[in-house]
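Newbie here. two chains, one complex. Structure please?
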Amino acid sequence: MPDIQTTLERLLSEAVAKAFGNEFADADPILRQATNPKFGDYQANLAMGLAKRLNQKPRDIAEAIKEKLPIGDVLTDAQVAGPGFINLTLNPDLLASQLAAMFKSDRLGVAVADPPMKVVVDYASPNLAKEMHIGHLRSTIIGDAIARILEFQGQHVTRHNHIGDWGTQFGLLLEHLIETGWANSTDTSISDLNVLYKEAKVRDDTDPAFAERARKRVVDLQSGDPQARKIWEQLIVESIRHMNQVFSCLGVKLTDDDLKPESFYNDRLPGVIEAIENAGLIRDCEGAKVVYVEGFFNKEGEPLPMAVKKADGGFGYPATDLAAVQYRVKDLQADRVVYVVDSRQKDHFRQFFKIAADVGWLTSGAELVHVGFGTIMGLDGKPFKTREGDTVRLADVLNEAVDRASKVIADKAPDLNAQEREEIARVVGIGAVKYFDLSNYRIKDYVFDWDRMLALEGNTAPYLQNAYVRIRSIFRKGEVDPSTLTGGGDGGGGADAIKLEHEAERALALQLLQLPRIIQSVADSLEPHRLCTYLYELASSFHKFYEKCPVLAADTDARRDSRLTLCDLVARTLKQGLELLGINTVERM
RNA sequence: GCCCACGUAGCUCAGUUGGAUAGAGCAGCGGACUUCUAAUCCGCAGGUCACAGGUUCGAAUCCUGUCGUGGGUACCA
């Protein structure tokens, strides 16, 4: 069954063609949801734009189109208003049958992509030399949400965790560890590593001789020196163990199969440089091999070089990133590669995307997208740090989230036992952190505010999770198993058919039916906050309905079944929507 | 200097890719609970959409400029 907007667009195109001729059939109907219920359900705004082409008054055009719109199964009313808006009111039976189809669909009416695209999503990608910190949060959860949404659409998604296991930072660490004897110690924890990395960084900044030795260690490592290699492996094992603990706590879908570390591309680097050289893009500059990308300048106003091979013979991140593009587009045949990385690296991405295009790797039409995001700020409006001014450990944030959620739940639902509360606190606390991040427009910075993210009102995870809980509570209380509902059976006209009588029911129905469009819009824009806004508005619509329309105490069985069906649709949509954001639900809270 | 984002109610944020009177939450004021979980709902108040031009039937949204904030400016990632 085509969705409502598609149906309306078809009717409008046919009406325009009938009124003004076939050459106008392809005019965009500019169909929008009505901004106000008094304007009906949808409005078509094409009459104003046609005025010039037709040399007629917009209102007359709108009237002419309106006259050709059939009133019946789809529309119960069409009115011209304002400068030439055509306000459309839908037949509630159509809404009900659409809802019945949605109810019967285990995908809630969301179509499967056909043909599917092959999409690589590069996210999380922490630097393994350090413990995971707050700076890794956004890439990890935004990337995971995007991957889940594309996957739900039926796209062929490949997750790549492009961990930093190969760069300059390992030179520092190796040199320092060899000197301090860490490699021979038996107790090697990630927290030690964190401290050691800081020490190494200080030495690197203050001791030129150390810095020189450290740089040489990178070249050793990349060329296969056994000692460097052995210590490096120890480091990696420990770091990945820690990373997986954090992922598990966050409920992120990345596994070891998704690891595509920088080192993975090592063998490909010479070939990549050669390909760029063959394309005539490489220049020599102070011993380094560089590419000049048009439109980029340094502080002196000179063309900005991008070093694909460093003066000391080592390879930096531009080489690795280019190798990764080649691998993803040529070997994996990706149609789309999505990089979920801090906005501050925007210029870097623009440069190597351009190089990839110039080398000729994108001739298949593959699209490279940088999904940038802003910085997490503290309450003081400056980048989020601990009171001592250190980076905030991600593990600490997640623990605190669960602790705080636990207190909120203890306050609101004292009858839950300790174990239940613990489980719920985990879902609510972690969900709150993730939702707070995802619900903001990702380009912008946001202030990390515990009280706001754990608030039970407003656009927060706890509010949505609670809306879900309330619905589940109705089914428990009424001892109704949702799977016994049919939505009116085939065709939606049975005894338990959905009936949209109250305006709150109608508003809820229209809201529910938007889901497929919202999913599509998130997949196109790669902006998960649109799904958050939708879920919040859905929960709001539900609460209005809940206030006005008794469900279990409805005056007839038919009305009760219809409302139960609506409730179940809302619950499933909330649960599915949150799941696409990587957030769980609970049955009570 | 150059380049890139962002600027919407007192605060935190949306605004369906150009549509009607710019919407939520918090904070403030006033209402509604022997409940299907009031963890909610209803109402009031709150705006020069940073500013100035431009594009057109129509601009918070697009283009130009100005101001403000933040970021980037090769061999760290």
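Moderator note: DSSP finds 20 helices and 13 strands in chain A. The longest helix of chain A spans residues 226-250. Thread marked as resolved.
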